[in-house]
Amino acid sequence: MSKGTIRSLLMGDKQADRVVPPSGFTAQLTLFVSGAMAFLAVFALALSLASGRLADRWAEELARAATLRINAPRDQRAAQTEAALRILRQTPGVAQARALSAEEQAALLAPWFGPELPLDTLPVPQLIEIVEGEPGYDAAGLRLRLQAEVPGAVLDDHTRWRAPLVDAANSLRRLALISILLIGGATAAMITLAANAALAANAQVIEVLRLVGALDRYIAGAFVRRFTLRALIGAAVGVALGMGGVMLLPDASEAGGFLTGLGFRGLGWLFPLLIPPLGALVAFAATWAAARRVLKELS
Amino acid sequence: MIELDKVGYSYGGGELLSDVSVRLAPGSFHFLTGPSGAGKTTLLKLCYGALQPTSGQVMAFEQDMRSLDRDRTALMRRRIGVVHQDCRFLDHLPVSENVALPLMVSGRDPRSEAENLGELMAWVGLSSRADALPPELSGGERQRAALARAVIMSPDLVLADEPTGNVDWEMSQRLLQLLVELNRMGKTVLIATHDLSLIRAAKAQVQARVLRISDRRLQLAGADL
Q: Do A299 and B49 touch (CB under 8 A)?
């Protein structure tokens, strides 16, 4: 398809648009379908971007962090914590080691036990947050040394639950991307069906036009313009509604955990704006292909 | 103008036309006659490229019809005005716009040719019906509208397939009159008809040659018609 053909297919031509009779009901169906598909695409896109962010964040933060738990009787806890911190500071590859304060520990437990937890009366272990340097430390070596000097220390480097979480976020992103592709394909299929129906309903118009010397691109253009415009308008409305819906989702917050923050962030808000032009492009290609198929059968 | 050289045409099963050779010279007036189903419409379709011959060669304006791509076929059709047996229109547009359709599809602005269009509508006697929709027209009005649409591009050749097929004698005389006038303006005319009295009437006014399809072949009919 040459540039000239595309231009003449899309160029507004009031005369040419009149040769195809107006169609009320199918036009509204096309609008509705492209609108609904665009609406769904916005959510799939939001899900894919958010799960991508989540996977990256988990992989990044958890990979660089580990926790040391000190289970010791109350009277030995401070001494063992001190010893563990000393060992950690001496360990190559540990960038930072810090004992969590009682308030921080209480905050971590708050979602389960509620606020105002009398932490002093409970046998809660002391937590030490370890931030890994570059290159990382030798976990096996560190474990052996801790075992010898701080018997109550347990090193948790998070790998056990980091991998499945990152996997889950990544599969969520994959599913969202597949959904977007399916939505695009379904839109193309439905526009093709609608275009085929319109072409079949207007078989006589097409035949007359061809016999009076109309070029294929003139005839196809009348249909292509119509469906492209409908898909564009429908998708624009769908995207506007979808973005409104995403905007109404609760903001990301510490309390809500990973289920919040499903919306778009920053430049991410520009992605859904690509949906209407892409939908129009899909409609353009689908209608052009359908029209060419029909025209090929006419001499 | 149009030249058929040893043209044959077969539908799936049998052969309809074979070894048809004819040359339509510029400015000539031809009738094409023969019994129903003899292949009159097929022969006309071969002339404007709606069908491709199964053997032989059709030349239109010095170009082999087979060598034309779809766009060039469309451009060639703008030089040939066709009045179809079942005159089909765009039923949602008024008659005047249907008549101007060839101008529209060839990218010319019908408004700038409004005067020509008005004259043409008057010539075929449809001025008062310009705003009617095609389904509201009578058989004769449809035929005249089809003729007007066929000639609005000022084609070099006018092909008419049974233009008087479903109109009364008076109306068929009027249509014939219009075609004869076109021929006097220098257009080449080919009319397919089985109406022998129409041919006789024409012969009084114009130097017409009669081609007859008989037994799959095309013959030049004698002067006894």
A: yes
Note if the bond before A135 is cis, omega within 30 degrees.
yes
Q: Which two tokens stand for residue B43?
A: 């022969």
> Helix, strand or coil for residue A215?
coil
Contact: B105, A207; criterion CB under 8 Å: no
> Which residues from B are below 8 Å from A when comparing CB atoms?
49-52, 70-71, 73-78, 82, 84, 88-93, 97, 101-102, 104-106, 110, 149, 153
Whether the model clears a pTM of 0.80, i.e. scores above it, the answer is no
Q: What is the dihedral of CA B184, B187, B188, B191, to 10 degrees?
A: -80
Distance CA A117, CA B102 (A): 87
Cα separation, A192 vs B138, whole angstroms: 38
Q: How far is CA A185 from CA A41, A182, A243, A249, in A?
A: 12, 5, 21, 28
Size of interface A-B (CB pairs under 8 A): 63
Q: Are the C-beta atoms of B100 and B121 separated by less than 8 Å?
A: no
- Candidates B52, B104, B147, B152, partner chain A, best to mutate (most A CBs within 10 A): B104
Q: Which string of b and e fits A123-155 if b means at least 16 CB within 10 Å? A: ebbbbbebebeeeebeeeebeebbeeebebbeb
User: pLDDT by residue (tens digit) across B5-54?
Assistant: 999 998 887 888 888 899 999 999 999 998 888 889 999 999 998 888 99
Which pLDDT band, with edges at 50, 70 and 90, does B224 fall under?
very low
- pLDDT tens digits, B69-97: 889 989 999 999 999 888 889 999 999 99
CA distance A85 to A69: 11
Whether the per-residue pLDDT at A117 is higher than 80: the answer is: no
- Find, among A5, A2, A1, A4, the residue nearest to A217 by Cα: A5
**What is the C-alpha separation between A99 and A91, in angstroms, rounded?**
16
**Is the Cβ–Cβ distance between A26 and A194 less than 8 Å?**
yes
CB A97 within 8 A of CB A197: no
Contacts of A216 in chain B (CB under 8 A): 70-71, 74
Say yes or no for a CB contact (<8 Å) between B110 and A15: yes
Q: How far apart are CA A216 and CA A296, in angstroms?
A: 9
- How large is the ipTM? 0.86
